[in-house]
Design a protein that fits this description.
The structure is a homodimer.
Chain A: H1 21-28, E1 32-36, E2 39-42, H2 44-63, E3 67-68, E4 74-76, H3 77-83, E5 94-97, E6 103-106, H4 111-121, E7 130-139, E8 154-164, H5 167-187, E9 192-196, E10 207-213, E11 219-224, H6 225-229, H7 244-251, E12 255-257, H8 263-269, E13 275-290, H9 292-296, E14 300-302, E15 308-310, E16 312-319, H10 320-330, E17 332-333, E18 336-337, E19 348-352, H11 358-373, E20 378-381, H12 387-397, E21 401-405, H13 407-412, E22 414-419, E23 425-429, H14 430-437
Parallel strand pairs in A: 3-7, 19-20, 19-21
Antiparallel strand pairs in A: 1-2, 4-6, 5-6, 7-8, 8-16, 9-10, 10-13, 11-12, 11-13, 13-16, 14-15, 17-18, 21-22, 22-23
Helix pairs in contact in A: 1-10, 2-5, 2-10
Chain lengths: ~450, ~450
């Protein structure tokens, strides 16, 4: 993309409305603009990130066997009366009355809607198991929306719902999602730690939050250092196999947020030199809620012996728009954002220091065309602006690599490349630079 | 995708609630289910089609230089008061009051919102031209929603908005969208005819509807046969060039819907043997509305000589969810849907006639793996069902190719392939069949 033809309104100053660094940087780097309290427009740069995150989430959901669909944003209140949640949900539910005076609402979640679909369309145990998900905008009318997209009112969520004939098969579905989440967050460039979460009246052990580490995180996190160093299950993992041993290492050690933390248990379970106390942000939650909605809504299937069995269900959420903010909280410095390669809106920022110079233009066009042809997203700063502004804009928006082309480099056939994360700069012959720019830069030591 | 692990609830009977063929077939083929009046859930099969259409729309918008972003669904009423449309919009606008008693609404369109963004973030003529689009759900509270997704309340629309410093540059933006639309509809497998549309108080000649031909269309259409036979501009078209001569053939002949039709002018302009009278469905609309919103909302930029100029704007819509219905209206037969190759949820339906037969399974798995590796979307019917049900389901959902594998074929090393559109069947050696299945089937003669 040529910056001269792009829409990237960056800001030099920190906006007064933003209290946390991700919100500041999302405004300054031109990712979003507030439409009204807790509601954001995603400008082209932010939209690219949102899409890249969504695509990774989608790929890993599909790989696990979940099926993508799309439920609408506006739901009928009747459904929620059936489940018994309509009155109890409170003011966070955006309630709407349509022109025929029918009570509707903007969905804050979709348990009711998906249970209705499965109830009406699935009759037999033979059609199960089923895990259906969508990536759709939700609305929760927070009393004090804040922290930008981290606690917005209109937000994008991936929510999956599994349907099974028994708790035993539901456990298989749960483990699949557990593994898919580990893989998803790793691909997003994040360290996500599963932490046992409340199950409320459902009981059991099938509720985990996924917390990513960030100094500015909302929760305190306590765990064994080994958990942080565990890599996610690799491509060799098969969702057809029993995933119990795959998950075991992630759930066997001590790991708790401040809500469930027990200092004595922590000290008993983890040697002093292995204790990690950090801050974290919740980005996902998986939860087996048994027959909570299926019973209220009479969602059953016929078993082989002709009986009806009430469906066993779980729900599995990932805060997709929240992740944009969470990734920035986890990965930034004083100059701006540092995108992980997989979600960077552009992997390479190409800076033309002198657009009046034919040699600079030719070399830039060449690099731009060749990288683009190799599937690299390049933001080419071809604006007639001062070098200082170009450098600071590029640092701010956080492409993993920068490539700087000036008249002296052109003469020498060289390119200066900069690793945004480490700040390390190198001047390389053109071809050597091209080889570097197509792969992620080395990480900070 | 293996049908045994998919969610595809087909219906044998025509649902009473559906009045038109696309609605009947979308329900029967398991593409959608109604959530409430005029609001639909997109099941996995329908969601695939919606995505394929969106992707083609997106690619052609991007190619023309338009930039994708994403505005939220919920808007503040204040914005609409600024433009003067809040009171006038009437009951089709879904009005909402949030928990703080602030008046909000579910966006039926986005002129106000995008004008605000451009006003607040674009200061100089140097940042123009700009064409920003999004593909987002809209809501219009139709008094009588009907015809399924063809006239729903919650619907997916691509809406683009162009911003220019003058009517002359706005005309360039308009022509780009005109060409992008011709290309988009052709790629969707549709014949879309541009028809001059009302400009109201704006005046001028920059308003066109794009109408696709379908026997069951809502409007009568009158045009010169040559218009129907004109191919869309090819890949060689450059959006940097003057597009006037590219567009000329599409706007020079007689073409009108019943709203603007003048029989005498039609007969004078078109020789009798070239007159086409048909039915059509509106699927797109492009419209230059000058300074209508920018003036009310004070959206200006500085010109080179330091003056402020009010922005000249156009809007460009494509009904993405409506297109799913419109394509079916244009392409079906008594047995079901006939998808164009480019938007088919699966291009090949692979039918295993005897899943108890190892030879059948081996051949099916082989074909499935090889086609998938070549990027073909295959729906593999591996269910333990009778052949008759498999055939009728596959006809209903309308994959362009069917490949049928039975024990006799396996023995002979042969596959029966069926062209869904023509009904033509051929029995071919495996390798010859494989070669056929990776390309669109020949069209009806």
């Amino acid at each position: 993309m040529r910056l001269s033809a792009y829409f990237l309104p960056t800001l030099k100053e920190n906006p007064a409305e933003a209290q946390i660094v991700s919100h500041v940087l999302m405004l300054r780097a031109g990712l979003v603009r507030q439409a009204s309290a807790g509601i954001y427009s995603w400008l082209p740069l932010g939209h690219r990130v949102l899409n890249k995150i969504s695509d990774i989430v989608r790929e890993e959901q599909n790989r696990s066997g979940a099926l993508e669909m799309l439920m609408p944003t506006i739901q009928s209140a009747e459904l929620w009366e059936e489940s018994g949640r309509y009155d109890g949900y409170g003011k966070e539910m955006l309630r709407i009355t349509d022109r025929h005076e029918r009570p509707m609402l903007f969905g804050p979640t979709n348990e009711e809607q998906i249970t209705q679909i499965v109830r009406d369309n699935v009759r037999s145990y033979k059609d199960l198991p089923l895990n259906l998900y969508h990536i759709q905008w939700k609305f929760r009318d927070e009393i004090r929306p804040r922290f930008g997209v981290m606690r917005g009112r209109e937000f994008l969520m991936k929510d999956a719902y599994s349907f099974d004939v028994s708790v035993d098969t539901a456990r298989i579905a749960y483990r699949k999602m557990f593994v898919a989440y580990l893989r998803t967050f790793e691909r997003l460039g994040l360290q996500a730690l599963p932490m046992a979460a409340d199950t409320g009246p459902i009981g059991g052990d099938m509720s985990h939050e996924f917390i990513i580490l960030a100094e500015t995180g909302e929760s305190a996190v306590y765990c064994h250092r080994d958990l942080i160093e565990l890599p996610a299950p690799g491509d060799e993992v098969s969702y057809e196999d029993d995933l119990t041993p795959v998950i075991e290492p992630y759930i066997s050690g001590y790991a708790a947020t401040d809500e469930k933390h027990d200092q004595a248990a922590f000290e008993a379970a983890v040697p002093a030199d292995k204790r990690v106390e950090a801050r974290g942000i919740e980005v996902g939650h998986i939860f087996y809620f048994a027959t909570k909605y299926s019973e209220a809504m009479n969602a059953t299937v016929a078993t082989p012996d002709g009986q009806n069995v009430t469906l066993h269900c779980g729900s599995y959420g990932i805060g997709v728009s929240r992740l944009v903010g969470a990734i920035i909280e986890a990965s930034h410095d004083d100059d701006g954002i540092i995108w992980p390669w997989s979600v960077a809106p552009f992997q390479v920022g190409l800076i033309n220091l002198k657009i009046a110079d034919e040699g600079c233009n030719t070399m830039c066009e060449d690099i731009y065309a060749r990288l683009t042809a190799q599937g690299i997203d390049v933001l080419y700063d071809d604006r007639d602006e001062r070098a200082g502004g170009k450098f600071s804009d590029m640092d701010l928006i956080g492409c993993p690599w920068q490539a700087v082309i000036g008249p002296r480099g052109v003469e020498a056939g060289e390119v200066e490349i900069k690793n945004r994360a480490t700040g390390e700069k190198e001047t390389l012959p053109l071809e050597a630079a091209m080889d570097r720019l197509v792969s992620p830069p080395p990480e900070k030591k």
